[in-house]
Write a structure and sequence with these properties.
- This protein is mostly helical and 231 residues long.
- It has a single domain, classed as Arp2/3 complex 21 kDa subunit ARPC3.
- It contains ten helices and no strands.
- The longest helix has 30 residues.
């Protein structure tokens, strides 16, 4: 009679290895029902605290950049500033949520009376004035640029087209706002006159700002992505 290799019976209270493997797989299977698997951030190895801190820092830097670029201005009917450049750059680099939040913080600081607007002005009167629509129109710019940059992986054509489209929407909203407020406070103004005051002088400078923002986005985004993944 051949000798048989004896196996130790499983001890009471200890599941066999196969059962343990099945249990572990069921718990960490992403397709199991909610509550059976750990949070997405933990499965990916991310740290929700660090992620929140990065978002806060990004928004703070974005709001500060928009503020500084607002202060660099040439007084015209609508002050010539670098706000457009800042909004496009922040939204292209970090996406629509960070771009919109940065702009929201900037606007709230201005509403609180801090001199963050062009000419070191602040207060609700700036936003409610004839040119305030162009500041509010930046929200459309940030949304369009941020969504397109993320969806198209920040390709040069996508960046150029989204920034141009975002600025055109800002022009349209701001010009409609300008004509409405100007007509109420001063008198009716024609579309051609409004465009001549508020849009045509800024087309070439804004085109230069778009090219600069695209170039910086292409240069900075790979560096920032490496730092983020290594954090």
């Amino acid at each position: 009679m051949k000798n048989r290799r004896l196996r130790d019976p499983p001890r009471p209270g200890i599941a066999p290895a196969a059962a343990v493997d099945r249990t572990f797989s069921a718990i960490y299977n992403p397709e199991t029902e909610a509550g059976s698997c750990p949070p997405e951030s933990l499965r990916k190895g991310g740290d929700p605290v660090n992620s929140s801190l990065r978002r806060i820092l990004t928004v703070a830097v974005g709001a500060a950049l928009i503020t500084v670029c607002s202060w660099i201005s040439i007084p015209l009917t609508i002050p010539f500033t670098l706000q457009t450049f800042a909004v496009c750059l922040i939204s292209a680099l970090f996406g629509a949520p960070s771009g919109l939040l940065s702009l929201l913080v900037y606007v709230l600081l201005g509403l609180a009376g801090l001199p963050v607007f062009s000419g070191f002005r602040g207060g609700a009167g700036v936003l409610l004035g004839a040119t305030g629509g162009y500041i509010l129109g930046f929200f459309f710019t940030a949304l369009i640029v941020g969504l397109a940059a993320s969806a198209r992986k920040r390709s040069v054509p996508a960046l150029i087209l989204s920034m141009a489209a975002g600025i055109l929407v800002c022009y349209a909203f701001g010009t409609a706002w300008f004509m409405t407020v100007y007509a109420r406070n001063t008198g009716p103004v024609g579309l051609r006159a409004a465009l001549g005051w508020c849009v045509f002088p800024y087309l070439i400078p804004d085109a230069v700002k778009i090219l600069l923002a695209v170039w910086l986005t292409r240069r900075l985004h790979p560096v920032l992505s490496k730092k983020k993944s290594g954090a």
